[in-house]
Specification:
three-stranded antiparallel beta sheet; 0% helix; single chain; 31 residues; mainly beta
Length: 31
C-alpha cells in the first residue's frame, strides 16, 4: 500500500515501501 504525508494545506508526498526502502515517491497538489 501507499503512504502519504501532508506537507502544506493541499500538498502531499506519496510513497510506497519495498521492504526497508522507499520507492515510487511523488509530490501531489490536491485541489
Amino acid at each position: 500500500g501507499f503512504w502519504s504525508i501532508t506537507v502544506k494545506e493541499n500538498w502531499r508526498i506519496i510513497f510506497k515501501f519495498d521492504g526497508k526502502n522507499i520507492i515510487d515517491v511523488d509530490y501531489l497538489d490536491y485541489h
